[in-house]
Amino acid sequence: MKSIHYLLAIAVASVVTACSSAPTWSVKGSIDGSEGKLVTLERSYNGYWNVLDSVRPGADGSFSFKTEPAGYADIYRVRVNDWTAYFPIDSIENITLNADLATKTYTLAGSDDAVMFNEINKLIDSTIAAKGNAAANDSILKRQLSGVILGDMNSIVSYYIINKKIDGQPIFNPADKGDLRVIGAVVNSFSALRPNDPRTRIMEQQYIANRRALNTQATTIEAVEIGYPDITLKDVAGQERSISDIVGHGRPVIVNFTAYAADYSPAINVILNNIYETGQADIYQISVDADEYVWQDAARNLPWVTVYNSPRDGDRALRVYNVIGVPVSYIIDGSGRLQERVDDVAKLPEVLKKYK
Prior knowledge:
The chain is α+β, with helices and mostly antiparallel strands. It has ten helices and 17 strands.
């Protein structure tokens, strides 16, 4: 009998060990003002939010959740009463969420997507502060968010944006033909690159239903047709230069984010110089160097538009183009439409052939 109990104990221990070794993601942090309240972790199932776990936070508002990944990128939320904080999970990230119930604000860290959620929320909150509930129809906000979407249309960030609402009103309204084009671009990308994502089929059905409601005949999903987020920064002469200054002249424009102090910079500028000298495209190059003098030394010798995104300028330029790291380039075609993102500068000459 003892031997049987011993074998059972080993079997149970093996199961526990196997379970404990399963991959998990976590979210933890603190919520000021949540002491004594119930904090719940929730996940959406076909539009309904189900509770996965709940805790009573510590005296300092600290909380922690851990669970297994869904198998695809998804959005979860932490809730206290009627306050909610949304965050993305792709696989096994460790997300940090710090919040204040009094101000109903929160910050996220732990992944690139979480940081982008943060920036999007800041952008929306600042627009609401300036324009109130009319922010949902603000054309500048939509253009900025459209730029983020175009940077990566099949990301959980883009899904978050097209479902974001202000006081119950969607920023991208499927009843509006222009907004529906942006939604369609995300749906099209999910259909091509995330066919097994359970949200994809639902989005396709909703998109087609809204197309029919707008009395259109076609049921195919169109690509997004938006302009481009404009940026105005100072060049080495102290003059303000905008992307719009060089767009619309019949040639493509390369918007290049770079750091001149980086080892890769000389090689990248050789490629850009060949593109510029042969007339393939105009160039608007944005330096994010920590040392302004490094930028000045390099920029004064370059023939294209070079500007500096200083700490005083903030991070708007990076946010509207969804820039997580440099170098990265974007192509605006000759008619002024932002077309695509190119992470490998060496591929620019080939990509530009599509926009002659």
